[in-house]
Structures are given as C-alpha cells and as structure tokens.
Amino acid sequence: MSSSPRPxxxxxxxxxxxxxxxxxxxxxxxxxxxxxxxSKQELARRLQGKAGAFTTGGDRVDAEVLAANPQxxxxxxxxxxxxxxxxxxFNAAGVWATNTPDVLTESTxxxxxxxxxxxxxxxxxxxxxxxxxxxxxxxxxxxxGSDVHGSTLGILGMGRxxxxxxxxxxHGFGMKVVYHNRSRLPAETEASVGATWVDxxxxxxxxxxxxxxxxxxxxxxxxxxAAEIAQMKPTATLTxxxxxxxxxxxxxxxxxxxxxxxxxxxxxxEGEPALNPALLSVPNVxxxxxxxxxxxxxRRAMARLAADNLIAVLGAPGQGGQPLTPLNAGQFTPRx
Length: 336
Prior knowledge:
This protein has twelve helices and twelve strands. By secondary structure, it is of the alpha/beta class.
C-alpha cells in the first residue's frame, strides 16, 4: 500500500533556509525566496491545493482568501501581532490561526527601550546634524534632551513586552513606572516590575516617556490622537513599537512640528511600508522600519515556532493535532 501524499504548504515570504529544509522534511513546499510581496488575490491563488501557509504580518488572510481555499487547515503567522488575520473568518471557515508569542519578548523590549532612549536624547537628530557637516563647535544647549533615569515611564498596554520594558526602566534606570491596561495586573506582578496602574488620562498627564505596547484592534484605532497628545507634557516623548493605526500619525506629525510634545520614536506606521510624508519633514522623530524583533536569534526562533505550528497540525496526517500557539483554540471546529 502506498503512503498518503504529504500535505502541501505555501511559505509566503523569504525565510531562513534551514527553516525551509525543516518544512520540506514534512511537506511539499512552495517557497518564495525571491521575497515577492503577493497581493491578496495572488496569495489566494497560490494557496490553491495547500493545506497550510506560513505567513508574515503583511500577508492579509480574510474571508475571501479562506473561501477560495476550502482545503486550507492552518495559517501560521511569523509575528506576534495578527491584525492581518480576520479571526472570525478563520473560525467560520474552521481554519487554525497561529502566531509567535514569547520568543520575541525580550528582544522587542530591548529595542523599545533603545528607541525610547534615542528619542529622549535626540540621537537621530544629532547624527543627521553631524553628517551634514554642521558641527563646528560645542554649545551648552546643543541637542540637550531629557533624562531617562529617574523619570516617569508610562506604558500603555502591559502584556509580556510591556512588563519587560517596565523591568528595564524600574530596575535598570530607577524610573517610576505607571501603566494603563484593559485589565490590571496581579499585585505580585506589579511589584515585580515596579509598576502602578493608573487610568489613561493620568498616564498621559504623568508620563515623561510614553511607550505604546498594546495590540491593534478596531477599538484601539487612533487611541493616541490629537486629544490624547494634548494631555501629554510638552516635554514628553512618545514611542510606538505596537502597531500602526494605534497612533494618528498625521496628528502626531503636527504636534511634533509645533513642539506640543518634545519628540517621538516610531517603529510602526499607518499603511506601512508607506508612511505619512509629514513625518519625514519634522526633525524631532526617530523612524525605524518595523524592526523591533529584528535580531537573528529572535527572528530564527519566530520562524521555527511558525514552522512547528504547521508541523503540529499537518505533520501527522489524519491525527488533527493542535498547534503550539493557537489564536483561536476553542472557538471553532477544525476542518478535517
């Protein structure tokens, strides 16, 4: 008797060669090492006949894509965020959705803290000044920024990454840490990271350095807009390592230009990789291209977890395994 054919999967973007080799041990793999960015229509076409997909945060998977591929059983996102997934559509279709939490927490927290410090100390602005050949003398107020040590760190969103940033601020820099979250943390967790829960208005008013680490949801769209920025100190900084759309980028650019807050550090943007051109014309903003998790070790761990999710579900045909990090466990009946 011949063995069952191996499941076919699509790897929608370029990935580490060793991850492809691992996947090829279990599946028939269509890869994309040319790293072409597929339109939603092209993604749906390439998923024809595939039981699984390995995606990144830029690959939109919604009801239309799922309906066009009734054989699809799992889509594994190489990202912790999943606003590219329509989870109710996954549930209706009976398809597993997974992400890659935990493995990027510490690296992302490192980057978030570094971006906040670069913003506070005007590092990008001063580097551009130096590169333009404008540095000719010392001055007492040349690129004088704001202290990080001993200041008040405000965190909006207090999941794993928010807590890791709080630990760095409290234990490493003696910062007073205040946070706002939909759910208050247990008292022992607050104590371990030196954080105090406050309401959102108090957070905005007290923070010297406000860091955004909350997930994108329709409810969180533009949760930092002109009205919220107006509640911040004029000396405050804003750092966004969460998701584009949480901040109204147009309102932020205007506030930065008018110096209604001191500076901003942004790793995520509305409509990325496009960004609001107004952000390019203000000097007091540090801009990075969504690289908060970008260390080799962390990206490799994210890719491996996405691969392991596919293997758990599809690697043993007929067993209907459960992925390691499901987004929709218990919400649907999986396709056979």
